[in-house]
Amino acid sequence: MTLTRRDWLRLTAGGGAALALTPDLLASLARQEVMARAIPGTDETIPVVGLGSSATFSRVARSEDVSAISAVLQTFVDNGGTVFDTAPGYGASEQVAGDVANELGIQNRIFWATKVNVAGRGGGGADPAAARAQIQRSFDRFQLPVIDLIQVHNLGDPPTQLGILAEEKAAGRVRYIGITSTSERRYPDLAAVMRNEPIDFIGVDYAVDNRASADMILPLAQELGIGVLVYAPFGRTRLWNRVSGRDVPEWAAEFDAHSWAQFFLKFTVAHPAVTCVTPATSRPEHMIDNLGGGMGRLPDESQLERMVQLVEDLPPARRG
Questions:
Q1: Model confidence pLDDT, tens digit, residues 26-50
Q2: CATH level 2 (architecture), domain 5-9+22-312
Q3: Is the whole model's pTM more than 0.85, yes or no?
Q4: Residue extents of the structural domains in the chain
Q5: Which of 15, 52, 140, 213 shows its CA 20 to 30 Å from the CA of 147?
């Protein structure tokens, strides 16, 4: 199934108001485009909302029926998305996404962002040959001569693996390189790499109820001119649990947020250091909803404070 934004908005307006949007607003959104930001130090821009491939995307990729992956990828590119973030560590996601994109003929419409990490557990170093082999498998899966971005996953042996990525970039096989961490306790290590290595991007967690990276990491990225991909803007399932059964506040319309997904994503995108946020989904209707988080107005400082207060006043997420 291929579902365009216009198709989905028409269905929502006529069949139950899945997002409680008015017909006039639906028509307005159908004419909008996802805003884009420049990759620091370049003239290249990318849409501020992309697609991740962990969580539900990864679970669906492991199944034998990949029609949902086909639908979400086609919907993604048909509605202005480009940045697709994956990793060899996300189960079958990288392989299946590469296969599907090539079957659909959309591989050249995607900004491919993947990762490398073969560092041993418990602090063991990375085997350079194994790292190069993992990188080559990513090329084979995407069937492309150049990958847009490869990052060292979870700070795995930066000297070895970033060195290999630097070689790949110098050879013209990788356009941008970087490093990721979604562990607050390792932010000092991430900051050290940012200061001492010639990287183009970082990947880090940031959400309305998880703002620790805004204390040091995001300002440092701005200072050093490093692009930022944001992961887990919904706290995986944490934020969904906290707002279950609750309506989006009416005042969120002041910055064009008409669903909880758009509410959460606009909070993240509003930070000036953020280049792109990559929520994962395997459902095309959710993909379109997510892209709406990069359309229209963004919250200002007073609205951001109000968003934080609203979430802080919610009950904590349920365990399990």
A1: 555 566 899 999 999 999 999 999 9
A2: Alpha-Beta Barrel (3.20)
A3: yes
A4: 5-9+22-312
A5: 213
